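The data are quoted verbatim here:
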Amino acid sequence: MLSGIGLLRRRSPRLVAALAGALVLTATSAGAHTGHWSSVTASTTGTNTYPDLSPQFTFGTPPPSVTSFDFAAGWKFAHAPTKGTEISPTPSNGEVIGSGAEYGSFTRLFCGIATQAATVFWEASMTGAPAGAVAHWRLHNVLDFDSHIWVIEQNDATDDYRLDVYHPTAQRCSSQPAGAYVDLDVSGVSGSGGRLNQTPSTAGCYPVTTWFYDTSGVRHDGTTVMMAVGGAFC
C-alpha cells in the first residue's frame, strides 16, 4: 500500500522520516550545480521486507534527461515476466503501483509553470528497454505524457540493481523554475499483492547513490542515502 504521505508537497532533503515509523538518514549533497539534487527513502528497514519507495529529485535549468538511483547489492527488484523470476508474485500488467507530482515548466502549457499529478504503472512490455533492463515502470503525467522508469540489473549474482528514470525532455521547457521537481511514492506491494522490491536478508548499512544527467549532457551528483536494514545503526 502507498504511504499516505501527501503527494503535492516537498520533503526536506536533509532528514527524511521514513514511513511506518522507521527512520532513514539522508546525507544531502547538491553536487557541483546549485539547485540540483536527488534522494530516495524507504518505508521500512526490516530484512526481507517489501518497502514503499519514495524517490524525489529537484532540478533547475537545463532539466534532467536521465535520473539514476543506484542501490547497494542485495536490494532486490521484481522482474518483468519475460526476464525471469526474482521476486514473486509481480504486479499485473498496467496495474497502478504508485503516485506522485511533477512541478515545472511544460511545453503543453506553453511553458507555463504548474504542479501536475502523475501515476506510476507496472508495464509487462519491455519495448525500448535500455541495456540491462529487467522491469519497466511507466510514470504518466496528467498532461498526457510519460516518463519511463527502468529497473537495471547490474549484477545478477549479487542482486545489484539501479533505477533509471528517462524523462520526456520534449515535454519540459529548456528554462525551468527554481525548485522544479519530480516526487514519487511507489508501493512495495501492489493492490493485487504484487511485490516490487525486497530489502536485503542481512542486516547492515546499504547506500543508495543518486545522480542525473541534464539535457546538455552534464552529470549532477545527488545524495548518498544510507538505508539502515535490520536494526543497523548507520
User: Anything to note?
Assistant: The chain has one domain: 19-229. The longest strand covers residues 112-123.
